[in-house]
Specification:
alpha+beta, Heat Shock Protein 90, about 25% strand, globular
Length: about 160
């Protein structure tokens, strides 16, 4: 069976929790474990937060009040597809994009150290999901694609 959903929301930090819970609710009928739900929520949180803070540079709610900027009117799109017991998540923004994708995916690399960002967003997404792909073009935005098999076993067919 295939099921899908899509949400589009303003790129503001308050909506990160909404996205995280919406995706968790979408998979709830499969009775995921608490660990699976936590993994999914963390990965979605990281992807959406990256879109808001790095893609649109919307800093409302982050850092010192003097460092906060006007909110960019951008949108974040989260699409989810369930195919049997595999969850596909796509987080898209039309923000500034990533100049050096390879460098951005290195653990501990951050372009916002003043906000006490750890630079572990992509590393967490990769660790908590079964598959991660990132596509980005400077000036055009970023797409993060994640997959996770719910239940036991790998979502990738393995040869015995």
């Amino acid at each position: 069976m295939r099921n899908e959903m899509e949400i589009i929301f303003d790129a503001v930090s308050d909506n990160e929790a909404f996205a995280r819970v919406a995706v968790a609710a979408f998979v709830s009928h499969l009775n995921p474990t608490l660990e699976e739900l936590s993994d999914i929520k963390t990965a979605v949180s990281e992807a959406v937060t990256n879109s808001i803070i790095h893609g649109y540079e919307n800093l409302y709610g982050y850092g010192r009040p003097a460092d906060r900027k006007k909110v960019h009117p951008g949108k974040v799109q989260v699409q989810c597809v369930l195919e049997e017991d595999v969850l596909h998540i796509r987080v898209t923004d039309k923000g500034k994009g990533i100049e050096n994708l390879e460098q951005a995916m290195e653990p501990l690399f951050t372009t916002k150290p003043e906000l006490e960002r750890s630079g572990m967003g992509f590393a967490f997404m990769e660790a908590f999901m079964d598959d991660l792909e990132v596509e980005s073009s400077p000036g055009e935005g970023t797409v993060v694609i994640m997959r996770k098999k719910l239940g036991t076993g790998s979502w990738i067919d393995s040869e015995e």
